[in-house]
Amino acid sequence: MAGDNNMEKGLLLANKEETARTTLLLVFSTFIIVCASFTFGVSVGYTADTMSSIMTDLDLSLAQFSLFGSLMTFGGMIGAIFSAKAASALGNKMTLWLADLFCITGWLAIALAKDIVLLDLGRFFVGIGVGLISYVVPVYVAEITPKHIRGAFTFSNQLLQNCGVAIAYYFGNFLSWRSLALIGIIPCGIQVIGLFFIPESPRWLAKKGRDEEVEVVLQKLRGKGHDIMLEARAIKISVEVSKQNSNTSIRSLFRKRYAHQLTIGIGLMLLQQLCGMSGIGSYGSTLFELGGFPARIGMTVLSLIVVPKSLLGLILVDRWGRRPLLMASAFGLCLSCITLAVAFGVKDVPEIQNITPVFTFIGILSFTMMFAFGMGALPWVIMSEIFPMDIKVLAGSLVTIANWFTGWIANYCFNFMLVWSPAGNILIAQQFPGDRKTSPAEEFSPLAEKFNRRLLLGIGSSSVLAIEFIYPSTWVGDQTLLYRAAEKSERETSLDLPPARNLRRKNVNEPVVAFGPPGSTGELNVSVIVSPVSPTFS
């Protein structure tokens, strides 16, 4: 009951909290924190334009480069496993410094690499840093910002990631792969210096019992004239509640009561990676060359739409709701896969082979857009909504690891599936060092007509079907549409008996929001009622 009382106190405090000003220190702190997200984006888009030049300069085989490209996601999985523990033990600032150390070391190793060993080691180190960044940055930003601007400031994380991808796509057309690696160091250097001038998260300070520092930090972030006592008390109460839920074991995740949420969370993450975006995003230049479309033009166009496409998803998510947006995204991915399959399928048909470059461009462009506004960001949003508080941390860690692991498999296997011959399961012959006289795209071309169309069609259609089955329309996690329907129903009819003259009663206190696990009969639900409180109320 102590936890329930604390929760009620937290809700009352949250309702009475004043709107804080957006101070210069808050903006500066957010900028320094999300600098790491830019490095994340550069690492994601780094291999898109550099595949041919790296393979040529270092005499790498297809298998060696595929391993190099996938080591970032494998390292990210390792970093994600320890990210929450590191942030809890060391603090967000120290964890970001540690991530910067891994990233800077990794990018320098890539830029100076003379053989495959140093190249792979550098990519792996960058992956570990990115894994730490993927957890710490959104948490750090959310913990220092007031709730009325928290969503917009947290979105800056995604925005800077997309800016990093765009920079990697665009400058990859002009810079060497060694110079492009040095670009990834710049935001890390800015962050290393900037972290000295920004405060630690108030929530982490409260966890460590440093209550005086909590109030000092909040005062700096909110401005001198703002009363921070209520917010400081709310943070301390929430920390106490979280400590009471910290004894949950990993075994409790696999109880029957959590099976549905866990299936949805892991299932959406698997679909996000298996849809093929990691491969198309990492090897887009090669796909353009295979389809006969100028790779430089294609990658430049992609670099221009990376940021706007993320804004599109932010606008549509509250208008359409989670499930319709996911369904539309999956359907668009399926059509994009069909377009790519047709492009490569008719490449050797003399009468219509001229449509291959156009269909390749349309397929890749539409695939990128469809992924961005639904399947790209929504699985993470849904994951944050469906798990109860007592398992949210453990379940989130498990789902994140599943995402990184599946991304590593998809990234590594993409090149092999691209040139796979279903008739004989033939892969490209490995060339000996010194014999390489053609680009990877020229090596792929003899087998391009055997592009695995079934794989593309299967991935797209299975995404639509899987979302339909594991994400049913009755699931309460789709809160946007649920609340909208509840408000409409409440306006049309009331659960109370109609009063005389068939007029609605005034001053009726009704729940403004209700939370509860899917499938329950209501005994576990929590309703929030907003009501005026008399001055004499204790």
From TrEMBL:
Membrane spanning residue stretches: 24-48, 60-82, 94-112, 124-141, 153-171, 177-198, 262-283, 295-317, 324-346, 358-381, 393-420
UniProt keyword list: Membrane, Sugar transport, Transmembrane, Transmembrane helix, Transport
Pfam families: Sugar_tr (PF00083)
Claim: Transmembrane helix is one of the keywords in the record: yes
UniProt membrane topology term: Multi-pass membrane protein
PANTHER family, sorted: PTHR48021, SUGAR TRANSPORTER ERD6-LIKE 12
Name of the protein in its database record: Major facilitator superfamily (MFS) profile domain-containing protein
Organism expressing this protein natively: Brassica campestris (Field mustard)
